[in-house]
Amino acid sequence: MAEQKKTNEALNVEDALTQSEAFFIKNKKAIIGAVVAVIIIVAGVVMYKNLYADPREEKAQAALFKGQEYFEADAYEQALNGDSIGFVGFAKVADQYSGTKAGNLAKAYMGICYAHLGKYEEAVKALDSFSADDQMVAPAMKGAMGNCYAQLGQLDKAASMLLKAASEADNNTLSPIYLLQAGEILVKQGKYDDAVKAYTTIKDKYFRSYQAMDIDKYIEQAKLLKK
Question: Closest by alpha carbon to 56, among 88, 110, 93?
Answer without folding.
Answer: 93
